[in-house]
Task: inverse folding
């Protein structure tokens, strides 16, 4: 930018021809800017149109929408049309490049570099915002009081529901399939956390959320989310250090526990005061902006002490939850989750290379066998956990275990982060995604059957 | 990502040491990813904290919040702490780099390149999302029916209020200050559009929005927004072509008019059907996602036919406005505007180099004289426009003219886009920003005085 002395005094103004030359020199930069803008817009439109299309189909055939978003990712990503390529499987499809070229008149090499560089950075960041705000919102919605009330019952289910699939999965993957420790730990960890979003939405649709079983499922789902994220932190820490060191495990577990316990304590001491402070500010969106600042800082704190960003986002949600303003904050987060978490789920699908699963190839069939094993452990482990429920009340243990089956978001987070650390090979990553898809697909009909059976029985006994 | 054959069969698994080596090789990439995440988080936090802090001060002393956001940009940008550097004025401040280094353990050169590259791309994109969604929402809120009702009265004020400052500004800048055509056109164009957001908020606070004067001001502000954006398109087109060609002006004006008229026609023919279609989809955020897709496509259409992106976003808002679902869509857009438009206003402040205005330097004083000239033309032009009102009703023409004074968003968009095209030198850009600040600062007290005088008079005559 020229100094004022060269511009402002009439005699010193650049002549018209000099200005023209500047414009001509800037033409290339402008073509680049145009190509970038078109590439970003095109990518965004493709992500949202595909997510809406497959999400709509999923909902219409009675499946959770998140499955449609994953399938949308398969369709436009490395497994499908190659429109959304995020670091593996080569360049973006020629047709996408051609559209950008048509509007921006840039060359194909530049456009490919735009897709591989800035567009990838932006989409990855949108996905990070999405999963961050999603886990923040799950934290906000985690009703700590209700959890304490359902108390030991939910805790017993949650612990059993985390330990059974974790131990059975880890044992099977190392003993039967001879996987090394780290991938086995990641894959087993991905079996632990129930999707609170999916299970509560299914139960709400079925009108059973307010039954005793529904409340215990919800409480246990919240608790195994916390446990699951702590285990995720352990798994990532272990993967980062390259080996399983007891001291580092203890350190990470300690940090994670301290972090979660700290969040629960801060929920009483700090959360209401911070929310109150934000609510007194004159900007009516101070609540949202202040919350985003806080979750950003918490993600940085988590990162600094060696935990994952998303644990920070989740803890931020726990801390700011359960105040009079929480509902408003949840509502303000919803559009952000709707847009950015959609990008997150689509990118998980887009990065998943399903073509490595080739049925003609005996090694690929082995990958499918692992996926099948993970799915069986995931379902049996959670259903069995229902029978570990410690209670004297007459509750349907099968219904509770079944309600814990869908993995969804957190399982996908495990898959995505596991792949990002480099600990998970493509095939294991695909096996985890297939497990998540399978558990999320089977849960709605299973739950429908179990609760129908339960109401038939109540009909007979009452 | 290794192929499945090398991973899945037990004998072919990489040994533990090989896995360790992979992790070590990935360590550098991970340090980079960590530095990037911390730099992005830090920048976001700084933008929001500064915006909240200065926005709060602005509101508490009775000024529009957007002024606080501009000042926040001055404070953290090139005029201030150098925390947010977006392409001019050198590297990011050492202290910001040190914070990133503390957490990520990356080297300073890498961190500087992260701030200059990915962080700049992300912040620029957030700002683009912000101004896009803001203009979409202004389009949504533009009540076409109401505008047609207040009709010729608002139109007469709007046209006079656009032409007077445009002509007087352009004449003065070229004849008195001897500026070349393009910068003079840009600076004069920036004088045209009233800030509908600011003026309606001021009138709402004063309880005069529903007076006849308030309604005419609102209608005229909507109309001169449309005219202003059309003039902006002309100015940018002219700057891009490097000279004032009658044919290109006619072409651009024709496109802009066709675009806006097309939007009004599509508001009847297409908007309600598209909204109705989106509302039938099962995802409760289909409305928002579908609107984002539509505004993205419209911004691409605008770009393709040679207009600016934001005109596409505004037209998308006009088209989807005035349906039963519009209020819900506005509400869903609000959190996005709250977050991303804040980034936009802060970046405008951050990019504005106020240090070029050095009072000890006679040339700088010349720049301040231009700012003063622009401000006087901006205020006198709009106040005078009130007296061009064609009506037989007894209305307060001074109040109407005064209500048109605040420029705000659209004026800042002109400054930002003008600087982006390279047509505006730093000093002229700063002069425009100072004019926007001055008009937005003086409008609230002026309006308060005018409406107080009016009610005193009514008190005497009634």
Result:
């Amino acid at each position: 930018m020229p100094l004022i002395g060269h511009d402002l005094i009439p005699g010193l103004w650049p002549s018209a021809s000099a200005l023209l030359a500047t414009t001509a020199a800037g033409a290339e930069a402008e073509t680049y800017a145009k190509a970038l803008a078109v590439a970003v817009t095109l990518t965004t439109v493709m992500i949202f149109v595909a997510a809406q299309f497959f999400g709509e189909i999923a909902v219409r055939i009675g499946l959770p929408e998140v499955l449609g978003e994953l399938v949308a990712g398969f369709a436009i990503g490395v497994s499908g049309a190659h429109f959304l390529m995020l670091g593996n499987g080569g360049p973006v499809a020629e047709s996408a490049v051609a559209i950008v070229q048509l509007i921006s008149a840039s060359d194909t090499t530049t456009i490919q570099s735009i897709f591989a560089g800035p567009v990838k950075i932006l989409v990855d960041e949108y996905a990070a915002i999405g999963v961050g705000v999603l886990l923040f919102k799950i934290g906000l919605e985690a009703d700590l009081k209700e959890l304490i009330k359902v108390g030991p019952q939910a805790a017993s289910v949650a612990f059993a529901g985390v330990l059974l699939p974790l131990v059975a999965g880890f044992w099977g993957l190392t003993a039967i399939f001879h996987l090394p420790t780290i991938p086995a730990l990641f894959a087993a960890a991905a079996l632990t956390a129930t999707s609170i979003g999916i299970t509560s939405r299914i139960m709400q649709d079925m009108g059973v959320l307010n039954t005793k079983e529904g409340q215990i499922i919800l409480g246990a789902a919240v608790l195994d989310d916390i446990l699951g994220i702590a285990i995720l932190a352990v798994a990532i820490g272990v993967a980062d250090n390259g080996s399983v060191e007891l001291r580092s495990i203890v350190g990470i577990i300690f940090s994670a526990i301290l972090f979660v316990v700290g969040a629960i304590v801060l929920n009483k001491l700090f959360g209401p005061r911070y929310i109150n402070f934000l609510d007194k500010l004159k900007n009516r969106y101070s609540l949202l902006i202040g919350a985003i600042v806080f979750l950003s800082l918490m993600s940085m704190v988590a990162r600094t002490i060696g935990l994952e960003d998303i644990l920070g986002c989740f803890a931020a949600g726990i801390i700011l939850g359960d105040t009079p303003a929480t509902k408003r904050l949840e509502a303000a987060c919803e559009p952000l989750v709707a847009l950015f978490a959609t990008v997150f789920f689509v990118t998980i699908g887009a990065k998943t290379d399903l073509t490595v699963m080739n049925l003609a190839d005996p090694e690929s069939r082995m990958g499918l066998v692992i996926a099948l094993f993970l799915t069986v452990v995931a379902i049996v482990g959670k259903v069995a956990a229902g029978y570990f429920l410690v209670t004297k009340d007459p509750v349907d243990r099968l219904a509770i275990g079944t309600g814990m089956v869908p993995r969804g978001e957190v399982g996908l987070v495990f898959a995505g982060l596991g792949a990002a650390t480099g600990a998970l090979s493509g095939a294991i990553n695909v096996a985890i995604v297939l497990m998540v898809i399978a558990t999320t697909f089977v849960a709605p009909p299973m739950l429908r059957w179990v609760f129908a059976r339960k109401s038939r029985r109540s009909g007979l006994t009452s």
